[in-house]
Amino acid sequence: MSGPSGPFGGPAPGGTVPPGGAVRWQYGRVAAVRHETPSSVTLRLELPHWRPHLPGQHYMVRLTAPDGYTAQRDYSVASPPADTGAIELTVLRVDDGEVSSHLADVVEPGDEIELRGPVGGYFVWTGERPALLIGGGSGVVPLASMLRHRRAERIATPLRLLVSVSRPEDLLYAGEYGAETTVVYTRAAPPAWPGRVGRITAGTLRPLLAEAPPGGWDLYVCGSNGFCEHVAALLVGLGASPTRIRIERFGE
C-alpha cells in the first residue's frame, strides 16, 4: 500500500487499535481529497479500526520523515458519528506549517496517514442540551460535526451556529448552512450583503443569546486564541456564566 510522498516518508512502525481496545495509533487510507477553500482541504480517511466519535472530538495525526523525524498535530473530526467506517478531517494550510502544508498540498487518494483517536471529552456536544456554537475560520470544523450530527440523528434540541470568516471564499462548508446559521464577514462580504462587515461584537451576540430556550445555552467557542478570548469576553460581558462556556483553541 502506498504512503505519503514529499518530505515525510511512508508508515513508520506503530500499533493499531483492536476493536474495543485502547486508543492507539493506526493507519488510515485517504479515500478522497476535497478542496473546500483555496487554503483548505477535507481528507476522507478509511480506518481499519474505526470507532464512533463524539461530535467535537479530534484525532492526532503523526507524520514521519525517512530520517525518523516526526511531527504531530491535532485535527478535529468534521464528519458526524453516523458516518461509519471513515472520518473526515478538514485541514487549513498554515504558513510555515509543516504538517498542514503536507496534508493540504501533498497527500493524495491512496496514501496512508498515521493517526490516533478519537480523543477529547470536554469540547463535545451530543444533543442533550441546547447549544450556541461560535466558530472563527477553521474553528467551525468541530462545530460542523455537531451540526451534522444533529441533522443525521434528527435531534430536536435547539442549536444555533455563528461563523466568522474574513471573506466569502474562506467559508468552509458554505453550501450546508440553513436557518440555524449566522455568518459574519470581517473583511469583505458577498455583493448586496445586507449585514455589516467587521468582527463579532456584543451586538452580534445579543440577539442570539436572547433566543436561548429555558435553561439557557451551553456555549461552544472555537478558533484562534485571539478569537476565543474576544468572544468569551463578550459573552461574559453580556451576562453568560463562564461555567457554561467551552473553548477550543486552534493553531498549527
From TrEMBL:
The FAD-binding FR-type domain, residue ranges: 23-125
Cofactors: FAD
Protein's recorded name: Ferredoxin-NADP reductase
PANTHER family: NADH OXIDOREDUCTASE HCR, PROTEIN RFBI
Keyword annotations of the record: 2Fe-2S, Iron, Iron-sulfur, Metal-binding
Annotated stretches, region: Disordered: 1-20
Pfam families, sorted: FAD_binding_6, NAD_binding_1
UniProt-recorded Gene Ontology molecular function terms: 2 iron, 2 sulfur cluster binding; oxidoreductase activity
Entry's transmembrane regions: none
Biased composition (Gly residues): 1-13
Domain of life the protein comes from: Bacteria
